[in-house]
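Re-run with default settings, no changes from the original entry. Doing this only to confirm the output is reproducible before filing.
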Amino acid sequence: MDLRIGIIGFGARATLREEVQRPGQGSRITAICDPSERARKDARRLVPDAVVTDSLDELLASGVDAVMVLTPDDTHAALSIRALEAGVAVFCEKPLAIHLADADAMLETARRTGSRLYIGHNMRHMPVITLMRQLIQDGRIGDVKAVWVRHFVGHGGDYYFKDWHADRRRTTGLLLQKGAHDIDIIHWLAGAYSEKVAAMGELSVYGDISDRRDRTGERMPDWFSVDNWPPTSLTGLHPVIDVEDISMVNMRLAGGIMASYQQCHFTPDYWRNYTVIGTEGRIENFGDTAGSEVRLWNRRHRGAAEADETFIVPEVPDAGHDGADALLVAEFLRFVRDGGLTETSPVAAREAVAAGILATQSLRGDGSAIEVPALDPELVAYFERGQVG
């Protein structure tokens, strides 16, 4: 029998419906909820057999087995908790929440109710990341001691400064909203969570642009164009812009592992560069899509040198985020049906949120290091058991 899936929020991430709507193959979308008339109109056209409503109560009462929360960040916690309390499994898009207390409450609610919670950290399924992690697990660079990440967000102006993302009340900041992915992957590659973070950042470019506009009812594809260049020429920015467009954070992870993350929203190119250094070598990616290279150095050299080995990021079936979205949704559906452990982790998602929130607090303060509070060990153990009491 097909799992009955409800979609909460039919906006940008509603593209995941293509991986869910598989009638007769294990899952189908039976209900969609969104307060926007435009979104509901799109839902009726794209998923004509689903119940479409603006009422969360109606969606939860419709008999869904699970819901996917694909709404703006500031709504994740309340909506997910409502669904968990109703006994429904939840897929929550990243970040888990924009306040640490809300993130912890989501995990605590999942344990108390026994409802399954899954987080949409799709980068854990990206081929470039799984390739790098396999090299680390195979011992090719020894024990990881440092992870350095540079994120060139070439579409930053269009993606994050023309809608709600630019308002810290909705996101806390882009070091959390955008950085939650990378912080999670830093933790995953290193095999350790952040214990202390210190950050600096600025609103360097987009705050000086005076051309602003209320884009209520619009969506990012309505205004996106690679011709919107240079960044200082952008128009129609969000009326409220109080998040940083460049930021950097240093992290001390458990076991003394050092990490850093840099994020810039006005670069001409758009990709992530990871460098992982171990006791016996290092790896670094050049490009982050299929056909890109991951290079390995594990011999001593004089000065700059060609890599000792080069690995090609494999091709994957055509799907969102280089195939990661299809793998993410497939794992979620399997988890709803059968339970068990998953590559993504609510605890890891909480730790990424904690590091991102406290790093934002640091950069908006004096840049001092802030300790990351530990999660309740019993709560950690619950999720490490695959959410089994």
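The radius of gyration is 21 Å. The mean pLDDT is 96.
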